[in-house]
Amino acid sequence: MSIYSETNAQFIHGLTNLSAILEKAATWAKENGKTEESLLTAALAADMYPLVRQVQISTDMAKRAVARLADIEAPVMEDTETTIAQLQARIQATIAFMQGISDAQLDGDDERPIVVMAREHELRFTARSYVYKFATPNFYFHFTTAYDILRQAGVPLGKRDFVGAIF
Amino acid sequence: MSIYSETNAQFIHGLTNLSAILEKAATWAKENGKTEESLLTAALAADMYPLVRQVQISTDMAKRAVARLADIEAPVMEDTETTIAQLQARIQATIAFMQGISDAQLDGDDERPIVVMAREHELRFTARSYVYKFATPNFYFHFTTAYDILRQAGVPLGKRDFVGAIF
Fold first, then answer.
1. Where are the alpha helices (DSSP H) in chain B?
2. What are the chain B neighbours of A148 within 8 Å (beta carbons)?
């Protein structure tokens, strides 16, 4: 497996763990008389994205990373989720898209150019530098922050939920 | 460069960004009449590690990952830091250790066994699965949580500080 196929597998694994974490959050909310909305709108700071955006961006980072590496279009998703069930559907659709990409589509020259538009700026990478300097840190940033928001809200989670099944 | 050398470079890059983030935190604390202690003891939940531990563990995850991959001993560091300057020294010592490991030391069979003791449990990996399933998510987990704690405390930081210089 190339580093590109490994990255795909690694992000699918992370999204699977994020899905399980959200399932625990939904159960906890129900058992403790909290609304899902109170969780989805929770943020760590007034100028940070709330949980719903952190989950949306986690899926976006994952699907766009592998789409760019495979040089195909990622499915567009409207950012309209207002329930955990809707976020779960988004995660499952993202995983299904990613699982449908073959190793052959992901493999290729380490030096092939990858261009990311960040606001007005063009960020120019090679496939390899894109994986290590952009895709991986950004994916884990939003996934971890989603976890951190839920931990702060009181959902009983541990590092094991974040790392998931290792074998 | 092998994925092992890339991982070393990636974690050094992350620790460099963490150092710059802590520098901004120290400056912010001074300018806003906050004590460094109030930042270092801040946590996102009562049963989560405070900032000082998140930084310590970020360095531990990084140094232990590359030490295991190179099959050498990582330097032992006492967890006694009480100031940002002391954490900066720890980060610099960690980076110096990691920079001293050659690509040749890190390279090797993807299937070579890596064993991690997690409390009472032995986690058994191959070098390759260790990078993707343990070292990478764990490093970014603690680094992101350190960033999140400082964002919540009010330190003016942005995603750019986390991702750092890309080129």
1. 3-31, 36-40, 51-70, 84-99, 103-106, 127-130, 136-153, 159-163
2. 44, 144-145, 148
